[in-house]
Structure formats: structure tokens, C-alpha cells
């Protein structure tokens, strides 16, 4: 007897009953991914708040002080200067205007910058893969950007670079998909603004340009270049317009000539050619090891992600673009061959993207093999495991009771904690109209005291360099000092605060020391005896005190 045929409805029921209860969690993956990501980012933000009172190091002091001067109406490259593009000052001025000049306020401002960067990283990687991968990249970046030796919890300019570089690349990928004019233009403009914050963005602009070309030939599979002109011209226009706008502002306020000097001529001799290659490679190795310590699972899986995408993916554009992202991110760290910890901040997005790539490739491959039914859901579970492993691994760091121990652990005997103690003392001594000069490159003291330097040469390490203009600057500083006759002086006796190059003249240092010895008397010392011990001596006890260590800060008051 013939078997009665089953209806399609009966087939579905039979399949459901034979496979048991099966839930398609990936249907909810976008919502789960966003929920888990926001939760973890908030937790990391709260951890960051534990470090909001951490003392500034000198770069933080420099940039925040210049941002403060900008809010007071001072012109970059004229009243103050640095070897950085002008948007750096505008962005720090904006942060100061919004969050104030306090240590806690500025740190919170940059924690917000990090949070926003993570959200844009989510959007970028979601466009590459899926929401789960986007969440993984965002959380991974939030985690590895807390690394103490990467200055992840500081207010460094590299955080601002990432704030504009990451959304610029996200919009570029959106333009690949949707081909909208505003996306090409805005992508270029965001990367341009990142370039105007720090020159290293040139490498990411080069990466973006190559990605446009690769997408044209590998994804769109165009044989000619006729249709390539539109995205290239639009993206290029987006890059050029902000640059022309800022240059126009500099021309209008008479700072263009000074801008060219500080952005090109001065760093050409003072920065790019000053480190030998072998020495630079040693710096790279040491800092890489320090930065990845306690975050190895993300770093190693990130590098594995590049291997996995080449082995398992059939998408040639993805393979080449991720490889170029890693290469150009590394090149962005390399100029000058110093490889300072904070230079690695704009390398970290590439690590986070590749980490997300590794988990995406593995889970999707297991789905193809029939091992997994819900790869995005499993990917989020992997993220949860990695997140809590990170919390456990770094608990003694994240929940530290004294964040100043991190400053000492990263920066050694650099007088950053001592600068704040000295400033606290001066704040109790100085009157509203009293003026202050710091001999040494510790501009954070000006931030702590709320005092403006009497001269544009607030970073006196610049006055002992080998460039010919140093004689002119030194003479200008001396004239400003003798005219102002400041009531208080801080003398910083520390080699890193002066950065005296080999063969440089000590004439300015000798003049400064002789001048303050003749016209001032000591009222305080921060005597750095060892890595973990500083002795503070104030008021009458300081008159006849002799420092025990070779590195110290001396506070002096003008003789009556």
C-alpha cells in the first residue's frame, strides 16, 4: 500500500521535532551584541574613572596648557609653539572649554573620547563583518587601550587622532557599499582633521587611498579607471578642504610662516634624523613587549586573525586591506624611531579589528562545518570570556588605590608626581598677580597653578637644542625673564626635563642657574631620592637643605 504523502507543513513539524528545541540566537545577534558591548564599555569607562586624578606627564601638560592658551585668545605658533599641526591646539582648546582645566576634568574628557572611538570602531567592523564582530572590536580596543605603557589612560594627542581616523575609515567602508557623495567627502574630511591633529595620519590616508583603488578592481571588478575618478576626487576633496581652511586661518592671523617652520623645518633636523636604526629597533621591541603585557590574548589572536583571513577567506579585498591596515598602522608608529608608548595608541585599532576578524573567521568556519548554528552568538560568548579574563588578569591594576604608582611605574623618576606636589605648595603661597617661571620642560606646573608663562618658551628643553634658532630663542627668554622679574621660580634638575643633546651648549642652563642663585632663595624641594621615594622640604627648612638625590625640583622665591 502506498505511503500517504506528507504536507510541507507536516515536514517542517517533523524536522522541528526530530532536531529537538532549536533557537536561532543569531536572529537576535544585533541587539545582543550592542547590549553586551555597551555594558562592557561602561564597565571599562568606570574603571578609567579610577585614574582620573592621575598626575599629568609633560606631553599632557604641554598640550593641555596650549589648549588653555587657545581659549584665552592666544595664537598658535606665535604666542606658543610645538612641532604639531594646528588642529591639535583647537581640539585641546575644545576639550578645555568643555571639561575645564582640572586633572580630573581633562581625564574624563579623554575617557569620553575613547568611548566614542570604540562606538565608531563597532560601526566600522560591523560594516566589514557583522554586529558581533563590531562589538568584539570595540570592546577589544577599549581593553587594550588601557595598557599603562601605551599611555592609554592619559590625555595624549593620539587619542584625538583615533577619534577622527576611525570614523573616517568607517565612512569609507560605507561609501564602498552605498557610494554616496557625502560619505566619500566626509571620510576624507575626517581623516584630514586627524592629519591636522598629528602628521602620522598620513599613513592612514595612504591606506584609505589604496583601499579605494583595491575596492574598484577587486570588488567592483572594474577593468578600466573611468569610474575610479569619482571616489578618488570626492575623497581627495574631503582631505584637501579642511587643510586649505586651516591654512587660510593661519595666513589670516599672520602665523603661516611660523607654522611652516615648526611643522617642517624644525622637526626635520630635531626629530626625524636623531635616532639610529638599531637603537630604534631596540625601543620598538621593548615597548611592544611592555604594551602587550597582560593583554596577550587579544594581541596574539589579532595577529592570528591576519593569518586566518588569508587561509580561509575567499575575499581578496579583505585579505589585502587588513594586511595594509596592519602595515600602515605600524608605519604610523615608526617616524623618528622613538616608538614611545603613546605612539602605539593609533596602532591599537588595527589589533582590535584583527582580533574581531579572528573570532569571526573561526566561528563562521565552524558554522560551515556544521559545528555551530549560531556563530554570532558564540562569538559574543567568546568576547564575554575574554572580557572577564582581562578583568581578572588586570584586577590589581584596574582597581589600584593609588593611581600615582602607575605614573611612577611607567615614567620612572620623571618628576610628574613631584610637579603636582610642588604646584600644590605654590598654590598656597602665590597671590593672584604673582608670576611664575619653570626652568625645565614641565608645563603641567603651569596647568596646576593656573599661571601663564611669562614667555612663549615655556618648554625650556627647546632652548638647549642644536638648531641655530636656539640662540635667538634663548635671548628672547632672557629678555622676557629680566623684564618680568617673576616672584617664583621652579628649577627642575632632571636630564629628561632638559633633553640636552650630545654636543649641545649648556650656556642657557648655566645662565639660568647663576641668575636664580643671585636673585632668589629656595623655599622648597622635591628631592627624588629613588624610584619610590621623594622627600619634600618646605619653607625655612629649605634654606639650608642639600638634595640627597641627583634629581630634584627646587622652588625659589625672589629676594626682597
Question: Helical element count?
Answer: 23
Low-pLDDT windows of residues: 1-21
Give the helix proportion (percent range): 55-70%
Largest sheet entry:
5 strands, mixed
Total strand segments: 5
String of helices and strands: HHHHHHHHHHHHHHHHHHHEHHEHHEEE
Strand portion: 5-15%
Radius of gyration in whole Å, from Cα?
27 Å
Q: Termini distance?
A: 121 Å
The backbone outline, from C-alpha atoms, is globular
Structural class: alpha+beta
Mean pLDDT: 92
- How many domains? 2
- Biggest sheet strand order reads 1-2-5-3-4
3D structure, described in words:
The protein has 23 helices and 5 strands. It has a 5-stranded mixed sheet. The radius of gyration is 27 Å and the shape is globular. It has 560 residues and is α+β, with helices and mostly antiparallel strands. The protein has 2 domains: 261 residues, no CATH class; 147 residues, no CATH class. Helix 2 packs parallel to helix 16 and helix 9 packs antiparallel against helix 14.
Amino acid at each position: 500500500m502506498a505511503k500517504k504523502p506528507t504536507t510541507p507543513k507536516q515536514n517542517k513539524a517533523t524536522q522541528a521535532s526530530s532536531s529537538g528545541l532549536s533557537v536561532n540566537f543569531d536572529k537576535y545577534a544585533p541587539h545582543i551584541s550592542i547590549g553586551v558591548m555597551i555594558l562592557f564599555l561602561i564597565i571599562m569607562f568606570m574603571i578609567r574613572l579610577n585614574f582620573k586624578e592621575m598626575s599629568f606627564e609633560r606631553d599632557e601638560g604641554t598640550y593641555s596648557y596650549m589648549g588653555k592658551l587657545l581659549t584665552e585668545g592666544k595664537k598658535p605658533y606665535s604666542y606658543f609653539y610645538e612641532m604639531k599641526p594646528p588642529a591639535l591646539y583647537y581640539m585641546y582648546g575644545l576639550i578645555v572649554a568643555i571639561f575645564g582645566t582640572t586633572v580630573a576634568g581633562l581625564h574624563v574628557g579623554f575617557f569620553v573620547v575613547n568611548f566614542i572611538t570604540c562606538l565608531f570602531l563597532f560601526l566600522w567592523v560591523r560594516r566589514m563583518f557583522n554586529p558581533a564582530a563590531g562589538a568584539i572590536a570595540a570592546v577589544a580596543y577599549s581593553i587594550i587601550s588601557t595598557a599603562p605603557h601605551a599611555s592609554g589612560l592619559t590625555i595624549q594627542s593620539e587619542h584625538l587622532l583615533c577619534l577622527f581616523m576611525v570614523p573616517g575609515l568607517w565612512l569609507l567602508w560605507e561609501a564602498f557599499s552605498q557610494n554616496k557623495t557625502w560619505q566619500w567627502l566626509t571620510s576624507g574630511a575626517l581623516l584630514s582633521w586627524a592629519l591636522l591633529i598629528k602628521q602620522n595620519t598620513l599613513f592612514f590616508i595612504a591606506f584609505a587611498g589604496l583601499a579605494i583603488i583595491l575596492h574598484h578592481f577587486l570588488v567592483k571588478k572594474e577593468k578600466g579607471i573611468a569610474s575610479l575618478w569619482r571616489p578618488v576626487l570626492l575623497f581627495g576633496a574631503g582631505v584637501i578642504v579642511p587643510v586649505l581652511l586651516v591654512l587660510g586661518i593661519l595666513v589670516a592671523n599672520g602665523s603661516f610662516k611660523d607654522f611652516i617652520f615648526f611643522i617642517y623645518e624644525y622637526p626635520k633636523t630635531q626629530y626625524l634624523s636623531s635616532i639610529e636604526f638599531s637603537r630604534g629597533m631596540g625601543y620598538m621591541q621593548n615597548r611592544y613587549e611592555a604594551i602587550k603585557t597582560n593583554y596577550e590574548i587579544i594581541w596574539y589572536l589579532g595577529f592570528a586573525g591576519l593569518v586566518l583571513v588569508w587561509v580561509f577567506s575567499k575575499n581578496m579585498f579583505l585579505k589585502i586591506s587588513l594586511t595594509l591596515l596592519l602595515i600602515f598602522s605600524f608605519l604610523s608608529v615608526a617616524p623618528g624611531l622613538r616608538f614611545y608608548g603613546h605612539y602605539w595608541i593609533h596602532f591599537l585599532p588595527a589589533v582590535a579589528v584583527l582580533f574581531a576578524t579572528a573570532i569571526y573567521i573561526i566561528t563562521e568556519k565552524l558554522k560551515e562545518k556544521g559545528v555551530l548554528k549560531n556563530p554570532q552568538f558564540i562569538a559574543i560568548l567568546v568576547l564575554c570570556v575574554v572580557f572577564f579574563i582581562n578583568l581578572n588578569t588586570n584586577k590589581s591594576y584596574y582597581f589600584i588605590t593609588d593611581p600615582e604608582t602607575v605614573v611612577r611605574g611607567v615614567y620612572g623618576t620623571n618628576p610628574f608626581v613631584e610637579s603636582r606636589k610642588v604646584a600644590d605648595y605654590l598654590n598656597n603661597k602665590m597671590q593672584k598677580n604673582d608670576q611664575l617661571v619653570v626652568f625645565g620642560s614641565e608645563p603641567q606646573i603651569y596647568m596646576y597653578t593656573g599661571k601663564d608663562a611669562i614667555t612663549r618658551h615655556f618648554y625650556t628643553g627647546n632652548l638647549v637644542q642644536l638648531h641655530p634658532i636656539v640662540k635667538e630663542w634663548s635671548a628672547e627668554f632672557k629678555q622676557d625673564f629680566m623684564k618680568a622679574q617673576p616672584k617664583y621660580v621652579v628649577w627642575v634638575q632632571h636630564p629628561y626635563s632638559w633633553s640636552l643633546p650630545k654636543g649641545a651648549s649648556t650656556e642657557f642652563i648655566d645662565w639660568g642657574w647663576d641668575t636664580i642663585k643671585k636673585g632668589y632663595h629656595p623655599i622648597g624641594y622635591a628631592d627624588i631620592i629613588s624610584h619610590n621615594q621623594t622627600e619634600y622640604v618646605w619653607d625655612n627648612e629649605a634654606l639650608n637643605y642639600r638634595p640627597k638625590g641627583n634629581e630634584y625640583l627646587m622652588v625659589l622665591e625672589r629676594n626682597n
